[in-house]
Structure formats: structure tokens, C-alpha cells
Amino acid sequence: MSSQPIVQLSGVTKTYASATFAGVQHIDLQIKAGDIVSIVGRSGSGKSTLLKLIYGLLAPDTGSVSFKGNLVPGPHEKLIPGHQSMKMVTQDFSLNTYAKVYDNIASMLPNTDLKAKREKTMEMMEFLRIDHLEQKRAVDLSGGEQQRVAIARAIITEPEVLLLDEPFSQIDPILKHELRDDIRRLSRYLGITIILVSHDPADGLSLADKMIILKKGVKIEEGKPAEIYRHPQRLYTAKLLAGANVIS
Ligand code: ADP
Fold first, then answer.
1. How far apart are CA 113 and CA 36, in angstroms?
2. Rounded to the nearest 5°, which phi and psi values hold at 13?
3. Summary mean pLDDT of the chain
């Protein structure tokens, strides 16, 4: 495998006019193909902004975002914003709520080969353990089930990078466990690079190959989750990862 990172950010700054710490500042980041990367930080720390910059929904004010060595086109350079080799699952899941699960997923593929379309859709539903829900409408599913449909829709077109915005926010602790397993399987068996955002670092601790800690738009730590957990360099990180007692 090439040593070139699949996604690279160099000195990326994106500010919004309205707030003091809005956006992200001077972010340098390298993401290896096949890794699971977890971006964590308190609400408002810039996690979603970073995800949108990687996907090309936002353009950086300064610095660059590249995919396999080529600049990611910004929203004004494309008719449909978003990089063609990446897919993003947002918190609203963007499902067609009154359509069946099968149709929600199958509609992502063209009608050029109907047999292949059916097989691929069934394969994705089985992979994400939602094949028994095939004929149900999306509106009749639980949050966790809708999340799986949204992920199936995203991966059926075989993106190289999957971006997940707060994937664990709408599901209970038992289902979290299952979703973590599914995300790990996606990464291992399909080889997809996964970048996920969470306000709760526990979500990424056992899952991620790499964790990035954001504070007020600045990357303050980066590394293997276990190392950051055992040896946090900053008080903010220690407080974020576990209840820390501070001795002055
Ligand atoms: P997070 O995902 O960590 O909650 P965001 O990336 O959504 O953080 O936001 C980071 C900061 O940028 C916050 O202060 C937020 O209020 C601000 N922000 C985000 N989007 C906009 C926007 N479209 N206009 C103005 N400020 C924004």
C-alpha cells in the first residue's frame, strides 16, 4: 500500500464571521487509507466544520485539503458539492422517509443492470443486518435502524472514505455496541477509510486507530486512543476522556 495519506490537510483555517472561536484554525492532518479516525471535542469545537472541509462542502479560507494528492474541490467548483470518492452520513440521515428500506438503498444505484442492482442492495442490507427490514418504510424504523439504512445508502456506491457525523448520538448503549462492531467490519472487510465525529470520546476509544482532539477550533492532541487516554497532554483532554481530579 502506498505511504501517501488518503486525506491530507495542511494549515487549514475556516472562520465564520459571526463568532469569536468559530470554525477551525491551522489544522494539519494526515489520514492513512483504511484507518478509522475519530474527531472528538466539546460541542462547538469545530468537529462538523472539519468534516465538511474534508468532504468539500466548505472551502478553507487558507490552507489546503487534498484527497490522494489532489485538491478537494470546494462547493463553488462543483454542481453537486461533495467529493465523488467520499460519502457523508449526516445526523438527519437524509432518508426518503416514506419509501421502503430496499428502495432507499437501491435508489443510489443506476438502472443499467437490474439484477446486479438487486444483488448489491441485498448484500448491503445483509452486511448491515437490516435485510429483515427490507419492506418497512424508513419512517417506521428506530433511530438505530435508520442509521444503518443511511450507512448502507452511503457505502453501496463504494466510496473510499466514509464520513460519519455523530453516528452514536441517537442510539442507546446496547445498540452503540453493535454499531461499533459494524463500523469496524466496514473498515476491515471493505477497506473503507472512516472518519467519524463525536462529542463523546468513549465512542471512539475502542474503535479508532487514531483520535484527534479539537478545542475551540484548534487540534490540541492526536494519536492512538489508548495512548491519549493513558497520557493526556492537556487538562482539556483528560476532562473530556474521563472524570479527572485536578490538583492545583
Ligand atoms: P461542533 O461540530 O464541534 O459542534 P461546529 O464545527 O459545528 O462544531 O462549529 C464550530 C464553531 O463554528 C461554533 O462556534 C459554531 O457556532 C460555529 N459555526 C458553525 N457553523 C457556522 C455557520 N454556518 N455560521 C456561523 N458560525 C458557525
1. 32
2. -125, 135
3. 91
- CB 22 near ligand 1, within 6 Å: yes
Across the chain, where does the E strand assignment appear? 7-14, 24-31, 36-40, 62-67, 70-71, 86-89, 161-165, 193-198, 210-215, 218-223
198 phi and psi angles, rounded to 5 deg: -150, 145
* Atom of ligand 1 at shortest range from CA of 24: 10
Q: Is the CB of 23 under 6 A from ligand 1?
A: yes
Q: Which helix (H) or strand (E) holds 15?
A: none
For 128-153, write each residue's pLDDT tens digit: 999 999 999 999 998 889 999 999 99
- Distance from the CA of 16 to the center of ligand 1, in angstroms? 8
DSSP state of 8: E
Rounded CA gap, 14 and 161, in Å? 22
- Separation CA 146–CA 15 (nearest Å): 33
Residue 120 has pLDDT above 80, yes or no: yes
**C-alpha span between 94 and 56 (Å, rounded):** 18
Q: Which atom of ligand 1 is nearest to the CA of 23?
A: 12
pLDDT tens-digit profile of 185-237? 989 989 999 999 988 878 878 899 999 999 999 999 999 999 998 888 888 88
- pLDDT at res. 246: 58
**234 or 117, which is more confident:** 117
How many angstroms separate the CA atoms of 223 and 54, rounded? 19
